[in-house]
Amino acid sequence: MIEKYTSYALLALMSIIVIFGTIEVGYTIVVNILEPPGFFLGVADLYGLFGLFLMVLIGIELMAAIRSFAMDHTIHAEIMILIAITAVARKIVIMDARATDPIAYFAIGFVAIALTVGFYLVRRSRDRVES
Question: Which domain holds residue 63?
Answer without folding.
Answer: 2-130
